[in-house]
Design a protein that fits this description.
Layout lengths: L9 H32 L1 H18 L12 H13 L5 E5 L4 E6 L5 E6 L4 E5 H5 L38 H18 E5 L10 H8 L2 E3 L3 E3 L4 E5 L2
């Protein structure tokens, strides 16, 4: 019990624990699962990542620490590209605090004003932004290198933006960089070969391995992977 001030109830404590688990661990775990699936589907991208990691580790000549995380730029690029394709929370609800107007435009550039009265719920649909060819070239392709150069930061919202942005963004990024870096440095990731899927095309394999379930968060359905220790 605190010496002064109100104590939180058991229900409030459970609510906070639930948020920590969902927002702090489940989302990152799902993102990492999708990342490893994509690296297995795109072995050339996995090799580029491995060579980058090997180069950084060789220059360090020791186990990396928190201060070294910024060196693994390609690991962060893989994490970002994964979150672009499979945002952990695909829909972000907002509520208008006051009367306002949104400006929208179609593919032809025709602009339309949309009145939004105070109290209106507005949902940010992240796939609609993340797959928009106005902002992302070849939006359906897994191309981590797009995050190694200038990229449209206002069109990338897996952590939300503004005053309500995710408080745990840095934690998630460090966790993602560390796990991706250490796993790929030691193991080659491949899709498990299963006889019932023999002869499938790349498109069919991609759809199967990246299939997902959507509830509060976006989670992979079934990702059969094999990790082979590198020589």
């Amino acid at each position: 019990m605190p010496e002064s001030g109100p104590a939180i109830s058991d229900q409030e404590l459970m609510g906070n624990m639930f948020i920590f688990i969902i927002a702090g661990h489940e989302t990152t775990a799902h993102a990492l699962c999708f990342a490893f699936a994509l690296l297995a589907l795109y072995p050339d991208e996995q090799e580029r990542l491995y060579q980058h990691i090997k180069g950084v580790l060789s220059s360090l000549n020791r186990m990396p620490t928190y201060e070294d995380m910024s060196r693994f730029t390609h690991s962060l690029a893989v994490l970002y590209e994964t979150l672009r394709l499979f945002p952990s929370v695909p829909d972000i609800p907002k509520m208008a605090a006051e009367d306002t107007t949104l400006m929208a435009s179609n593919r032809d550039g025709t602009k339309t004003s949309i009145p939004v009265p105070a109290g209106t719920t507005v949902s940010l649909h992240l796939p609609g932004i993340h797959y928009n060819p106005r902002y992302w070239k070849d939006p359906h392709m897994f191309k981590p290198e797009r995050f190694l150069r200038d990229w449209p930061k206002d069109a990338f919202l897996p952590f939300n933006q503004g005053a309500r942005a995710c408080l745990g963004r840095r934690f998630a990024e460090i966790e993602g960089i560390a796990v991706i870096t250490m796993i790929v440095s030691r193991y080659k990731i491949e899709i498990k070969e299963e006889h019932q899927f023999a002869g499938e095309t790349f498109e069919e394999r991609y759809a199967r391995v990246t299939a997902f379930n959507e509830s509060l968060t976006l989670g992979p359905s079934r990702v059969p992977l094999v990790l082979k220790r590198r020589e």
